Every structure is written in structure tokens, then in C-alpha cells.
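User: Okay, second chain of the day. Same drill as before: sequence in, C-alpha cells out.
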Amino acid sequence: MTRAPSSQLSLFEAAAQPPVRTAKPEPQEPAKPKQPSYIGGHRKRLRNRFLVGGAEPLPDYELLELILFRSLKNGDVKPLANLLIATFGDFNRVLSAPIERLTEVQGIGPEIALDLKLIEAATHRMSQGKVLKRPVISSWNELLDYCRVTMSHRETELFRVLFLDRKNVLIADEIQGKGTVDHVPVYPREVIKRALELNASALILVHNHPSGDPTPSNADIDMTETIQRAFEVVGITLHDHLIIGKSTEVSFKSEGYL
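Assistant: Same drill. C-alpha cells below.
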């Protein structure tokens, strides 16, 4: 009687079989954290408050939040807005900060810094549009507003020249020098050369004091007298020299220096 072959492998046959490889499970990507519902609700509420009441009732950090919403589509941006205010002091100083300073703040990349600088540029362009090609006498308050917007919150000194025609219409507004926290180089020869190129008949000098105090220094007074004497030689009138502080400004003409 013959025995039917067994389907079970012998010990030696089993050892000779190649090991069975089991497929490893595919790695699963971690699920993206879901944005808490209160964050989305906060964004909607803040947008609605702006639409209804405008920017005036909003504190600086909330206005910054609204801007950051455009760059950061998800997440809570309030801590980042508060960090920016704490770092630079207020909303205007955040916008006027150099890109390299902005990107030093944790959470601010090049794209967000660029968005902030574009908003600053748009603000300056709008303010400039209210005074350029208009007589400075009839738009003096707008001119002062423009100087405050563009210069009062800068961290370093800036020297600009407003060139006027014979009717005291502002024909050009140009930056002539960028300096440090307490000094900016001024070259009267270059100012006169540019005035002659523009056929300007008069000028207004403007620079800022990052310290916030617009009181003229002895160097400011001496420099203004030097420029005034140089302009008289070529028949150009120096109408005024404005020093812009953080919350106020000084007019050399009003204070009797001119």
C-alpha cells in the first residue's frame, strides 16, 4: 500500500525555501492640522469691523493683522502683529522699517516684508499726489502731511528737496541724501545743479530727526545758511527748511532762522 504524498514540507525542504517577503505599508503623510474655528471667526469679525467702521477705531496691531491676512492665509497672526509692534514701536514704523530689519523678525519672510513695503509705497504715492504739481501756498497743510507720512517714522535721517517753479508749484520732490540716526550728508553743489536742470526758481529743504525732537542743531542752522548763500548767487530762493519730528515739525522761516 502506497502512502499519498504529503502536502506538508519536510524540515529540510522548508529550510531550503526562500523567505517570504511581506510588503511594507506605504508611509502616510501626517494630516495637516485643522485651523481652529475661532481663528476663522476672528478673521471674519475683524474684516467686518473694518468694513463697517473703517481703520480709525482699530489699534495698530489689528490693522497689521488685516494686512497679514493677505499674506498668511491660515493660522493666528495676532502674535506676529504684536511682535512687529513691539519690535518697531507702532504701525507707521513697521511699514517704514527696511526690508532687512523686517526679515529679522521671526515669522516675517521676504514675501511678507515686500507686501508691507508695497503698502508703504502706495501710501507715499497717494500723499505725494495731493501736493505734486500744485502751489505749495494753497496746499501747505497737505505738504506737511506728506512730509510727516514719508519721514516722521524713519530710523535714519533723510534729506529731500522740494523744487518749485516761478508760481511756487511743486515740480519735483527728490531725496538728496540718506544718513545715519543723527547725520545726513548734504552737498549744496549737487542741489544747485539739480535745481538748474529742473529750471526751478525756489526750493524747500526737508529732513527728519529720528530722535523725534525737531529742534534744529547748530549743524542744521549752519548748513541752511551755507545753502541759502549759495542759492542767492544763482538767483534761487530758499523758501523754508522743515525739520520733521515724530509728532511735530519746525519751520526755519516761522522760527526766524530764514
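The mean pLDDT is 83.

User: Thanks, on to the next one.
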